[in-house]
Amino acid sequence: MTTRHSVLIVDDDPAVGASLFRLLKQAGYDVRHEASGAAGLKAVADANFDVVISDIRMPGMDGMELLEALRDHDRSLPVVMLTAHGTIKLAVEAMRLGAKDFLTKPFEREAVLSVIDTALRATEVAQNAPPELARGSGGLVGSSKVMAECLSLVDRAAKGPAMVLVTGESGTGKELVARAIHDRSGRSDGPFIPVHCAAVPANLIESELFGHMKGIFTDATADRPGRVELAEGGTLFLDEVGDIPLSTQVKLLRLLANREYTPLGATSERKADVRFVAATHRDLNAMVAEGTFREDLLFRINVIPVHLPPLRDRDGDIAELAQHFLREIAETNGRSGMSFSEGALAVLGAHSFPGNVRELANLVERLVIFTDADTIEAADVEGHLGESRPSSPPAAPDDGGTLAEQAKATRFRAVTNALARTKNNKTQAARLIEVSRRTLHNIIDEMKAE
Asked: Which CATH number characterizes residue 351's domain?
């Protein structure tokens, strides 16, 4: 099944809105156009969108105000700012405030599609990040010995300018550690700019990092700052640095060694006043042996190694984290005062949590939604642990059929059961089966078409 992503355009200029609408429709997106910031904000409250494109200059609520409101509503929703040449500085400031990217007028078709595709890829990566990133201290909660050692190292790393490499399994909270280093450093008043290297196509990573000059390629209708420039005075976080192609690793090495870089198409070098933090779940030493990662670059980024332990090695932290998540998630869902019984905490503590902090946070969220009582018991936890990690694959539909037909039947059955259990609450149903709201709506539409 192909997922149709949805894009909201917010622009008071009917011609610009219509042009973007046609372009994105032809590319296969579901598209909606609103002519004001207020209308755009209401649209987001009423429906699900995967990307928002907003003009910066609009009467009433302008693009910057809309960006702030959208960040308050849903920090995971990527916002792309649309700007004329004279307001590029505002667009750069918007990116420092949380916008995913910006487009300049007049825009080229390929540039629009590339920016949206990159935003969607980055969102997919972010959805796999531990949920605690948006909930406060999250993964930095814990008093186990291994976590105390990790936090001590974070504090030490924050005090100086040295390069930091954060390693750990998926779901352990590596970006949270990078943010903690930034927040505790002398650069905390500057921007924290993440680059999800795995989400950027290989042919665009240099432009993403270093920027480019007008005219360097067909879609370059204006000078464009890279993430290095956006991070000026702050911290640049290179997430999944092991995914950077070899051809770009050479230029990254030069940037780290000399604090200098050259935007694509530029004739002179620029200085970089940036703190660098990198992270990966990969074994970079093995990649060096395979020839897919430069050894000199590994030496350069691994000045201060910070290893984030998996949750199964954080003795005693599961209960502490679970109670932390319960307080915050219960309050968000209007159920303050919920608690775990001692038996429930014992069941949680005995689970290995291969998905790490992310898996624990998701489990607690399901428990808050589906437990009627104010106290979560051991049986509640056991039931939902069984749902999240089934011991055997689901039975095939009785009528057999092709693999695709059986997969479709399984999807339909899972959605139907989730909707029944949540009394047709689509947000809760999506959380129960661990898909995005947009994916859930796509499956429902597919069911209606059958």
From this structure: 1.10.8.60
